[in-house]
């Protein structure tokens, strides 16, 4: 292992538990991993961090049997193992819970939990015992969390947090000893994330080993015993979590000093360009009113499900409001489709970049010019030379890494997000809506997205920024509106930003004042 300081692994030799020893892996001419060492010990949480493209996903797939290394080995208690599939690794108690959850929505909670180890009525194992499955599921879920999910409930009706709990429950039912968790809190609210971290602590207290892979560095440091940093396919260092800070991890991940993640906020004093009055689409949101000024970054805070995304979709013409008005430069507009909004100078960077922002089969270059081609009319042909010139300009502006000539699905999450943003910037929009623009991307890509948002603001664009990361809103926005239960519960300017007050306003529709205080203290 390449390390700034010797780790216990280096001093004492191969540890007990699950280990990657000298792992290297190539894809064509690209070396994804180079001589990586990493161990997951019983009774510990081992954090794994790195930029997109650093090799985290490749390492996870090798540890879980989805890929074979070119060099090195996976070892269990110092003995080399050769996994040909995830089913092989599960026999050794290694279970991976991926960011894209593998829940079968048509089955019940219990049926999902016992999937792969179904209890039967008879000695031949031919008939599923739903009663026994329900008992197993209830026992497993209560072991993880006191208020167990009804095992007879259809899995398709569960929230993301509940689905994650079912996946962990399935791993326990399979007698897993090693849990690999890939971005487990990426789609969770702060409250749900805290609940999941409590589950991880419980697993650790039972002697389980957990590899915790996340872009949320504060969570990694909070939950982990040790942290390994990958950069460019190499393990830079492994260090005790208590001895590390977020700033240190960032510098190790990107390989250079980083004074601050956020660019300095510049003042904004432009005239109003967008006026929203009493915008309503029950039950999602009601009576939403605000002004957006030229060059302003207006943040929207709130819990997941508060109605923020629905408000943005209504403004952009995706789900027109039932009542209320929208004025653009003093003129009332009523967008009945995104095409109308785009022609009026609006852009929408959706929270679902894969579903709404990209065409996975097309190249990065083709994705970048999609909006320009569509707005030119059905008969517009964008010449190949023009595609290259336009896409190269955006590549340099946003520092997009990776080949733009290959399908965009092959780019890292951060670079995919830059392509989504870039395709809108090509149209020079006057108003840009960013809905969770940094979800699921690494810290280096986040910093570039923040700079891009500020540059668009400086160039005169007005920004609506939805984010579940309070630190993001507090450092980037000029003002923040807090949405709770589909209504505005607070408005603050940058001089008055207060994290506790924002949280209190975000819980306003759900908790009494006393309960809110208890929630914040917890």
Give an overview of the whole structure.
It is globular and about 70 Å long. The protein has helices spanning 8-12, 56-63, 86-91, 109-113, 130-144, 160-173, 190-205, 217-223, 246-254, 308-315, 338-343, 353-357, 364-368, 370-375, 384-398, 413-425, 443-458, 470-476, 499-506, 513-521, and strands at residues 18-27, 30-40, 45-49, 71-76, 79-81, 94-97, 178-182, 209-213, 226-231, 234-240, 272-281, 285-293, 297-301, 323-328, 331-333, 346-349, 431-435, 462-466, 479-484, 487-493. Strands 6-7-8-3-9-10 form a six-stranded mixed sheet, with helices on both faces. A hairpin with a 2-residue loop joins strand 9 and strand 10 (234-240). The chain has three domains: 8-100 and 176-254, Rossmann fold (3-Layer(aba) Sandwich), CATH 3.40.50; 104-157, no CATH class; 273-521, P-loop containing nucleotide triphosphate hydrolases (Rossmann fold), CATH 3.40.50. With 522 residues, it is an alpha/beta fold. Helix 5 (130-144) crosses helix 6 (160-173). 45% of the residues are buried. Mean pLDDT is 84; it is low at 1-14, 121-127, 376-381 and 512-517. It contains 20 helices and 20 strands.
